[in-house]
Amino acid sequence: MSDDIHIELTAYHEAAHAIVALYHGYAVTEVAVSLEAPGDGLMKYQPRLKRELPDPSPGSIRVAWLETLKKYEGEIRILLAGPLSEAKLLNTPLRSLGARSDLLTAQRLYLRLQDIQTEMSRYTSIPKPLPARYLDKLRRETRSLLGRPQIWEMVCALARELKDMDYLEAGEIAAVLQKIPDRHGQLGLDELFK
Hints:
The longest helix is centred in the middle third of the chain and has 33 residues. The chain has a single domain, classed as CATH 1.20.58.760. The N and C termini lie far apart (38 Å). Strand 1 and strand 2 form a beta hairpin. Strands 2-1-3 form a three-stranded antiparallel β-sheet. The chain is mainly α.
C-alpha cells in the first residue's frame, strides 16, 4: 500500500474514533495523522469525571456499576470505531485488517469490566449484568452507528480535512462538523447529541 493510502486509512480511523467519542459525550481535544510515519495517528479526548462513591451501600454500588458500564461501553465503542471504519472503507471483514492494537485494548477493557462486575456483585445484585458475547454486541452496535448516513458523513468530512491538514484541534473539529447539514437541511451537530 502506498503512503497516501495509509494516510487516508489512518485519517478515517482517527476520524471515526473522534466521532464516536463525541457521540458518547466526550470532549475531543485533538486528532492527527502522521505524514512522516504513514499509518500512525492519534485522537485525544477528555476523560469523564469520576463521581465519588459516598458509601458502599447496595444502592450506591448499583449506581457505580451503571456509571462504570456506561463509561466502559463508550470507551470500547471508541476503540472499535477506528478498525470498523477501515473495514467499511475497504469493504473488508474486520478480522482481516491489521489494526490489532485497538481491538486488543477493547478486549482488555472488556475483561476489566468483567472483573469489576464480579467484584461489585460480591456485595449486591447489580442491574444490567453483562450478557454473553457482549463485545460482539458492542461491535455490532458500533458498526450500526457508523452505518448511519449522517454519522458516516461526519467521519468522511473529518477524515478529508484531517488528510489535508494532518492535525486538528477541538475548535477546528467543531468547525468541520458544523458545516454538515442534518437530515432537515439545518447546519449543526444534532446527530451527535441524540
